[in-house]
Amino acid sequence: MQKWQLTIVVLILGAIAFGCHPSPKSENSNPSTDFKQGVRNMQLKDYNGAIANFKRFLQANPEDANSYYNLGVIHAELGNPKAAIKYFNKAIEMNPKDDEAYNSRGMAYAKLKNREREIADYDQAIKINANLVEAYNNRGIVRTQMEDSMKAIEDFNQALQIDPSFLAVYYNRGIARVNLGNNKGGIEDYNKALSYNRKNADIYQHRGIARANLGDYQGAIQDYNEALKINQTLEKNKQEIRDYRTKSAKISRDNADIYYNRGSVYTKLGEHEKAKENYTYALKNNPSLALAYYNRGLANFKLGQYYEAIEDFSPAIKINRNFTLSYYNRGLAHRRLGNFQEAISNFSKVVRINPNSADAYYNRGFAYIQLKDSERASADLQRAVELFRKQGKADEAEEALNLMEQLIDTPHSLPSP
């Protein structure tokens, strides 16, 4: 009996979350024309003009914390977190009780992936102002990213206690709940977020993942369809979108994820042609998505298109040299085609990366049988038996043992591939 292993990999989106963008500070005991114009220019996204305004104001008012804060916000918006931190430092130096400056500096540290300092700043912001909802939300996001979803949910709960209408928090808590396996709770949060904003593709996309996790595949497909529809509308109206080039890149990445996950649902439904179509669209939007190549390879395998499957597993491996499942399933495809030496080469790469892969030893042993290399076949099957038993897989161990005994008893009567 042959042992096949085809594993679908679903793309789980856990890193996408809504942060809170800092706003310019307009309060000032004696604002000059430069300060007022700087705030207006920030609101108009004329950042160069705003920088000039605040710097002129600081020449006359070198200790004005709000101007330093606003310069930090501008540099954060311009994608320069290091410069932003420099200005937030100055704002905090001038006003150590500025909760928003700590929160905003934490967000700048997030861009630099300095999570320790990021959390420390959110902690300090909350210490100064226990009702700063943005700091709870942002700390919840970083805790989710650090896979501490329980603590993240505590932060999101606190944020919602302060402001029950905060859309971002429902969405972010939904992600944390799904990460903990609470898909129903996640869907409840996504539904609440959608009640405030029905034009957000990210929410539909994540609700689709939760629905798929619960086996509601048609509901998941509906959500993925809606997410794609929203993104297509955004692309059509690109002239109306500020910073379209940056946002267009995000839309393409998001679309790749949506097509990929919709393809995974079709795979689970056994609709492999539709699955292939979706994986192909995913790759058009993100050619470096190894999982899309891999799962399209599985769809081709299921359809008996083994050459095409190999052509998909290969680029997945090129993107990720340690992608053991791609090596393994490429080995299976070669087995189906009778390319036993190629199959052995792939299974060997699997056990080199993962020496505990009992399936790879089993299938390599089977391939050695086809090449009439009884000694190596017996050694691999023996190793497969040991690993299967160690992993508590009694049926698989028995299967490998039977094949090994058959090889010993009748070495010239070989099973067909």
Automatic annotation (TrEMBL):
Record's keyword annotation contains Chaperone: no
Keywords per UniProt: Repeat, TPR repeat
Gene Ontology BP annotations: receptor-mediated virion attachment to host cell
TPR repeats: 31-64, 65-98, 99-132, 133-166, 167-200, 201-234, 256-289, 290-323, 324-357, 358-391
SUPFAM superfamilies per record: TPR-like (SSF48452)
Keyword set includes Ribonucleoprotein: no
Superkingdom classification of source: Bacteria
PROSITE patterns listed in its UniProt record: PROKAR_LIPOPROTEIN, TPR, TPR_REGION
One GO location term (cellular component): cell outer membrane
Entry-linked InterPro entries: TPR-like_helical_dom_sf, TPR_rpt, Ycf3
Pfam families listed in its UniProt record: TPR_1 (PF00515), TPR_11 (PF13414), TPR_8 (PF13181)
The protein, known as: DUF3808 domain-containing protein
Gene source species: Cyanomargarita calcarea GSE-NOS-MK-12-04C
